[in-house]
Every structure is written in structure tokens, then in C-alpha cells.
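Re: that chain you flagged

S.,

Sorry for the slow reply, it's been a week of failed gels. I finally had a moment to sit down with the sequence you sent. For the record, here it is as I used it:
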Amino acid sequence: MMGLILLYTGDGKGKTTAALGLALRAVGHGYRVVIAHLMKTLIYRGEYVGEYLAIKKFLSGYVDVYSLDPDQHLTPRDVLRMALDRAREVKPFLLVLDEVNNAVSNGYLTTNEVINSIKSLPPEVNVVLTGRGAPREFIDIADLVTVMEPRKHYFDRGIVGVRGLEW
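Prediction finished late last night. Pasting the C-alpha cells below so you have them in one place:
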């Protein structure tokens, strides 16, 4: 039996935030977490993003984070591979594949390679998939599907990139 698969998708804000909330909850119970940011770097506007700073400061030893790194020329496939290798090694309670839906829709990964990767994990690993436009195959295998739907957003008023809210 596989661990649970939780999917956060849709055009609304909050998919990564929901996944990070689960990571925080898991660490609160003493569990390990591996996070793979498949379409993001850890630096925005010249500084580390807030979630990474918090992980380094408060969750060191419980959470491993992998992300794109322009200096190392990493691709989403590289980040996925590193996170999967680590997950197979430490058997975390939770593996977050952040923006995996976007990586698939942009052609960096295939649905089959992601699904096969999930199936190759130890059974105690629960997986979170995030990103807009989840493929039907991810929806079908997920145990939980939450669709974030925007109703109102401050972006529409020209307020963008708020430190501590977006990064």
C-alpha cells in the first residue's frame, strides 16, 4: 500500500502555502519532510524566500529542501530525482512536490514519470502535489483533491510580490 496522495490545484492562491502547512504540522509531530520546488528557486528579489528562511531557522534537521538553482543549471527533473533519492533514503512522512503540475504542463516532466516515481517510494511516504492545471491522471490517483478558486485577489488592484505573503 502506498502513502496518501494529496493534490492542491486551481488558479487561486494558497497551494504551496497549504503544502507547507502540512510540512509544519508533520514536523510538529517529529516527522521528517522532503520538499522539492520543481519550478522555483529559493531566492526572490535577491533574498531567500520566507519559507526557506523559516525552515533553516526552526526546522533544521527535519526538512530537506531541493529547488532549481540557476548556478548549477538544475532542471525540474534534476530536482525531482534529488528529492526522490533523499525520500528513499530517509523515508520521510511527507514528500512535497511543489509545482509538479506546472512542470508537467510545461513539458519538463511526464505524468507517467511522476506517477511511477510516487509508486517507487516507501509505503510510509505521503505525497503532496501542487500547482495549477493538475493532469487528470494526478486527480485520479489522489486521495484528496483541493481546488483553490480565486474570488478576489489583491493582485487585481496592482499589489504584487508582498514580502511575507508571496515570498
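What I noticed first: Helices lie at 15-28, 50-58, 76-90, 100-105, 111-119, 136-141.

Talk soon,
D.
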